[in-house]
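dude i think i finally got it to work??
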Amino acid sequence: MIAEIEPGVTFRFMTYNGQVPGPFIRVREGDTVHLTFRNQKESTEAHNVDFHAIMGPGGGAVATMTEPGEEAHLDFKVTYPGAFIYHCAVSNMDMHISAGMFGMILVEPKEGLPRVDHEFYLGQHEIYTDKPAGMHGHHGFDTGAMVHEQPTYVVFNGAKYGLSAGRYGPMAVKTGETARVYLVVGGPNLTCSFHPIGNVWRDLWPEGSVRTSPLHYIQTYPVPPGSTAIATLHFPVPGDVKLVDHALSRVVHKGCLAVIHAEGAQVPAIFKPGPRRKL
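look at this
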C-alpha cells in the first residue's frame, strides 16, 4: 500500500492487514490460535510471518510462506506468556520489516494483567528511502542505506510525528488516569531508548516479560530490534507527554515522537510555572 510518511512524501509500505505496525493480537496463555495467512494476488512478493510466541520451526515462518495469490493455515498453542514481536521472515526480511511488516502478539498470563484506564500500541521502525527526508514526491526504498544503517526516517506507527496534534492527533487521557503502553521495535537495525518526556515509566516490564517483577520509576529503557517493552504511566498533571527514542536526532530530524495528551485541571502543588521576566 502507498501512504504518506509525512505530508507530501509517499512510500510503498508492506503491511499486515493494511496497517503499521500489524494488528495487535491478544491471546491468553494456553490458548490455541487458528491462523489463516493470505498473500493477496495483487502482491508482488512472497511473504510469511514469524511469531516469537510460537514454539515451532521458524516461529511459523515455514508453514506460512506464501506466494502472491496463495493462502496458508496454521494452528499453534501459546504455551508461555509475554509480549512478543511477529514479523515477515523471507530472505530479504530486513527490507520487509523496515517497510512495515511487523507487529505484536500479547500472550496474557492466565490471571490476566493489572487494570489500567487506557492501553496504547506503538511500533518503532526505520524507513530507508532514496530521497532526503521532507522532499515531496514518492520515495523508493534504498537498500544500500539500510545495509549501512542510515535511515531517512525513524518513526512510530509508520508516520513522522504521526500521533501528534500536527498529524493524526495525540493519544488522549484525563488527569488521574493510568495508561499501559505496548512498544514493539521492528527495526530492522536500531535500538530504541524509550523515554516519556515529562513523565516516567511507573512500571516497566523489559522484553515484555510479564512473569518477572517490573522495574519502577524508569526514565529511559533500551528496547532492541526484535523485542518489546510494556510500561505504565500515571498522569497527575495536564499537558503533553512526549514518547520518544532518546537518541534525540531521531526525534528532531527523523520523526520519532508520539504524544499522549492529558486533559484536566492544573495541580499547582505538583507543577506550577512561575512568571517570566526579562533580565
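The two ends are 54 Å apart (CA to CA).
im so relieved honestly
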